[in-house]
Amino acid sequence: MRGLKKVLVWTMIPIVLEVVGFLLVDNFYLNDQTTFNTKKIDSAKKAANKINLKIPDDAKNIAVSYNGNYVSYCSDGVINVVDTSNNKKKEIKFEDGAELSSYKWWPNENIILIAEKYNDGDSSYLKFQSYNAKKDEKNVLSNEKNKELKISLLDSKYNVSDIAMSTASNVTYVKVSKEGVRSRLYCINVMTNTEETRYPNCKLGKIFVENKEDRLIYEDNTNNRIRGIGFKSPIATGENGIHYLLNIDGEDRIYIGNGENEKIKKIFVINLKKTSENQKLPLSQPTDKKNIYITRDGKIYVNDSSKNVVTELSTGKEISYKGTLVEIYRSGIISKDNGKIIGTLF
User: Which positions, given as ranges, span the membrane (predicted)?
Assistant: First the structure.
């Protein structure tokens, strides 16, 4: 009997210790009222800069980076890039024999794509460079074999008239035009190789590229249609009138204006994958196409230049600004007023 009791005692000891351990964990470590020292991590986006900078009288091609950290403009044959946090300016100069054909900020980076035109005797061609504003670095676009990207032009009168970018796939389309002739369209892929993109025989209007599908959507101004490369049929709205391609947002929703004489009466929002989400948004009055701005996150803003007021279409919220509106970016408006670029935050 004594032997049996000893066995039972030694058997119970580890069981008791285990139960006590569970009780301690439950009542101390897992107690709802246990107090821990924690540090809050602020994941909010950096506050937008308050833009206020002087520009020369001859400044043109004024643009702003997606987050408002930089403003750019052309003057005296160079691109000037101003850091809006401290108004420090950098100059992007060109090589001898080169002239600016076009430039555009990437939709989600503080990086500029620059198209430079060279006229070398009887030949003309384009070269492309990227400029990283944060690092103040300019790099020639070249492929994996270190061969510089060039696009040959039929003559020196051709220039880049439009650029469309897909940030998800790093595919860029470049429209090259000359007065009175058919435009040419080129695709620069992620490996920085280029090829000419064929499209139906028509007068090519505005071009945009889907962010996720990297498919080009364009205006067919000959037949009054909105089309996509690879589509057999146009992108239909079911309405008569003139169709204007306004933009494509970051989720690949296509924004088409409908009206006449460059004035928009209603806006169609087309989702090619989810047609049930398509929308028709009437405007309170016909509005010049140039006064409609659509951001990457799909917000639609209508500018009333006579009142210096921008209205967000979905909420009716009005934002006043000074001078002449130049552009709308993620956090606000930039406008030109008395020799200055001024930012107005939403």
Answer: 7-30
